[in-house]
UniProtKB/TrEMBL annotation, chain A:
<feature type="transmembrane region" description="Helical">
    <location>
        <begin position="177"/>
        <end position="200"/>
    </location>
</feature>
<dbReference type="InterPro" id="IPR016002">
    <property type="entry name" value="Succ_DH_cyt_b558_Firmicute"/>
</dbReference>
<dbReference type="GO" id="GO:0046872">
    <property type="term" value="F:metal ion binding"/>
</dbReference>
<feature type="binding site" description="axial binding residue">
    <location>
        <position position="112"/>
    </location>
    <ligand>
        <name>heme</name>
    </ligand>
</feature>
<dbReference type="Pfam" id="PF01127">
    <property type="entry name" value="Sdh_cyt"/>
</dbReference>
<keyword id="KW-0812">Transmembrane</keyword>
<keyword id="KW-0408">Iron</keyword>
<dbReference type="GO" id="GO:0016020">
    <property type="term" value="C:membrane"/>
</dbReference>
<feature type="binding site" description="axial binding residue">
    <location>
        <position position="154"/>
    </location>
    <ligand>
        <name>heme</name>
    </ligand>
</feature>
TrEMBL record, chain B:
<keyword id="KW-0560">Oxidoreductase</keyword>
<keyword id="KW-0003">3Fe-4S</keyword>
<dbReference type="InterPro" id="IPR004489">
    <property type="entry name" value="Succ_DH/fum_Rdtase_Fe-S"/>
</dbReference>
<dbReference type="GO" id="GO:0006099">
    <property type="term" value="P:tricarboxylic acid cycle"/>
</dbReference>
<dbReference type="GO" id="GO:0009055">
    <property type="term" value="F:electron transfer activity"/>
</dbReference>
<keyword id="KW-0408">Iron</keyword>
<dbReference type="GO" id="GO:0046872">
    <property type="term" value="F:metal ion binding"/>
</dbReference>
<dbReference type="InterPro" id="IPR036010">
    <property type="entry name" value="2Fe-2S_ferredoxin-like_sf"/>
</dbReference>
<dbReference type="InterPro" id="IPR017900">
    <property type="entry name" value="4Fe4S_Fe_S_CS"/>
</dbReference>
Length: 208, 253
């Protein structure tokens, strides 16, 4: 019978792609509306806020999966004895970066949720102005760029290992092709994610 | 020819399982085509370190001397491999020898690889053929499958893949790539297939397949070139299907 580790690891892999990975794509896509100006972004984010039974959607599709993925992920990360200095192979570096991007994301996402979703729950309006205000601080802009890149990397590389973990890509050739495919995912989502961040700092929208 | 030329060896030594490790340097007269084993034998003959002190001869394990038994595995210049096929002419000098610390050190370069043999028992890496009567010949195996399976059967339980794996360490109970690949070997055998489910359950338990983190160091390090990561991915597929069958029930045999 499947042991506890087996079930938890498979669940961790599944949740990382199905609600969390999909949510990341939706989130970055909503952000991308910022490139069309504050009104477009506010309309898009308002649409998300106006979804029916929003809190249920958030809890079931975002909060619980992310909590499990993060807590179990930290446990996984600290179980590894990283050795990329001795075995400097590409996949071993990806293994190392997957763990460290994950640890960084726990910090980044906690901060980001505090600053946006919890601030909104406490009565602040979650709109273009809020993000423009946060990102006007150069240090925060750097923090957010690193955060978005870490999230996109963690998702892309996680997609690769998801396909191995579930036995979708078995042969070395299949795994090589999926490496290329996930590199493309990384590049495209990075453009979307970082592009949106710079849209918030676009000075032509200041004081709107 | 190369009279008087010496080769320097820096050996990480440890007097017992709980003793503190220390380094000791030796110099061995160069001989053509010498390997690490022949150098260690030379040191054993005259156990005197570079400072001229007489010392206990370093201990290591060896058996076949042709890279099929796996006993002489150690870390040579930072990489785990067999000492018998480590030719001194191809090594950077001084040559550094260390035990594979992923395993409990018995003494000097000798380690205890029991955990690998325990894992093979756990995953039932054998084919049960004994009965109270003659069971007759088993089903035949296609020649192409036999050739393919032969590659997996080259595993000599040397421990190099466990040493290279970042997820095999004192903080985790991961059994490592070698016993996993053996499950694939025995599950591919026409007679072994009859116990496929039991072996899959063996690797779906704690410390089994799921603890693999896909660093893929194992396949890069295996001295026999065994496609370990392919085996792991194939077992991922088999165990995913098995877990669905276990959970939902199935009439699939």
């Amino acid at each position: 019978m499947a042991g506890r580790d087996f079930v938890n690891r498979r669940l961790h892999s599944f949740l990382g792609v199905v609600p969390i990975g999909l949510f990341l794509i939706v989130h970055l896509t909503v952000n991308w509306f910022a490139t069309r100006g504050p009104d477009a972004f506010n309309k898009a984010s308002q649409f998300m806020e106006d979804l029916p039974y929003l809190l249920v959607l958030e809890i079931v599709l975002i909060y619980l999966p992310i909590l499990f993925h993060a807590i179990y992920g930290v446990y996984i990360a600290f179980q590894a004895k990283n050795n990329a200095n001795r075995y400097g192979y590409f996949r071993n570096w990806m293994f190392f970066l997957q763990r460290w991007s994950g640890i960084f994301l726990v910090i980044f996402i906690a901060w980001h949720v505090w600053e946006t979703r919890i601030a909104m729950a406490l009565g602040q309006a979650l709109d273009f102005g809020m993000m423009a205000d946060i990102l006007s601080n150069p240090a925060m802009l750097v923090f957010y760029i690193v955060g978005v890149l870490a999230a996109v990397f963690h998702f892309s590389n996680g997609l690769w290992s998801f396909m191995v973990t579930w036995g979708i890509t078995v042969s070395p050739r299949a795994q090589r092709i999926s490496t290329y495919a996930t590199v493309v995912v990384f590049i495209l989502l990075s453009i979307v994610g970082v592009g949106a961040l710079f849209a918030f700092t676009n000075s032509s929208y200041a004081f709107m | 020819m190369s009279e008087g030329k010496k080769v320097r060896f820096i050996i990480t030594r440890q007097d017992g399982p709980n003793a503190a490790p220390y380094e000791e340097t030796f110099e061995v007269p160069y001989r053509q085509n010498m390997n690490v084993i022949s150098a260690l034998m030379e040191i054993r003959r005259t156990p005197v370190n570079v400072k001229g002190e007489e010392t206990a001869p370093p201990q290591w394990e060896m058996n076949c001397l042709e890279e099929v038994c796996g006993a002489c595995s150690m870390i040579i210049n930072g990489k785990p491999r067999q000492a018998c096929t480590a030719l001194v002419d191809k090594l950077e000098q001084p040559v550094r020898l260390e035990p594979m610390k992923t395993f409990p050190v018995v003494r000097d370069l000798a380690v205890d690889r029991s955990r690998m043999f325990d894992a093979l028992k756990k995953v039932k890496a054998w084919i049960p053929i004994d009965g109270t009567y003659d069971l007759g010949p088993g089903p035949r195996m296609a020649e192409t499958s036999r050739q393919w399976a032969y590659e997996l059967s080259k595993c000599m339980t040397c421990g190099v893949c466990l040493e290279a794996c970042p997820n095999v360490n004192s903080k985790s109970d991961f059994m490592g790539p070698a016993p996993l690949s053996q499950v694939r070997l025995f599950n591919a055998h026409p007679t072994g297939k009859m116990n496929k489910k039991e072996r899959l359950h063996g690797i779906m338990g704690d410390g089994g397949l799921a603890a693999c983190g896909n660093s893929q160091n194992c396949v890069q390090s295996c001295p026999k070139g065994i496609p370990l990561t392919t085996s792991i991915a194939a077992l991922n597929r088999d165990s995913a299907l098995q877990s669905f069958r276990d959970f939902f029930g199935s009439d699939h045999q």
